[in-house]
Amino acid sequence: MKAKHIIIALAVASAIGMCTSCQSNPDSPLAVAKQAMTALQNGDYDSFIDTFQLTETEKSTLSGLIKAMGEEYFGRCGGIESFKFTDTEIGSENASITVHIKYNDGSEGEEILNFVKKDGAWYQKLIN
Fold first, then answer.
1. What angle do CA 60, 65, 68 make, to 5 degrees?
2. Is 0.85 surpassed by the pTM of this model?
3. Which has fewest Cβ within 10 Å: 4, 59, 64, 125?
4. Can you give the residue ranges of every domain in the chain?
């Protein structure tokens, strides 16, 4: 099972029409990627959710679900030991960043994070 399973809940939210607010995020996709991965590494799922463009109501709705999924997944692999960004493609409105993840149980994985720029701020995409 990949770390992206945590994001599945956010995709479900998107499918039912959730994703409309604007709040400030760092001004580069690499900064947002670092915020997201550091949040996951620290078990700070609310900060992870902040890397997506969601209203406060949407965040509140998803917070418990994302936390439960994250704790289950990262509990099995012992959490994230380290991560490193290995490939970055940044355009004017979209970006993708590949991250190599080492887990505390010795396993490793790679994920591609996709981003979109809205109103001058970068956010993770709900559906890649």
1. 130
2. no
3. 64
4. 5-124
Q: CATH class for domain 5-124?
A: alpha beta
Per-residue burial over 23-43, b if 16 or more Cβ lie within 10 Å, else e, is: eebeeebbebbbbbbebbbee
Contact (CB, 8 A) for 84 and 76? no
Positions in the chain whose pLDDT score sits under 50: 9-24
- Is residue 123 within 8 Å of residue 115, measured between CB atoms? yes
Candidates 65, 47, 54, 51; CA nearest to 21 is 54
Predicted pLDDT at 18? 36
Q: What pLDDT is attached to residue 3? A: 54
Look at residues 62, 54, 48 and name the one whose alpha carbon lies nearest to residue 18. 54
**How many C-beta neighbours within 10 Å does residue 69 have?**
17
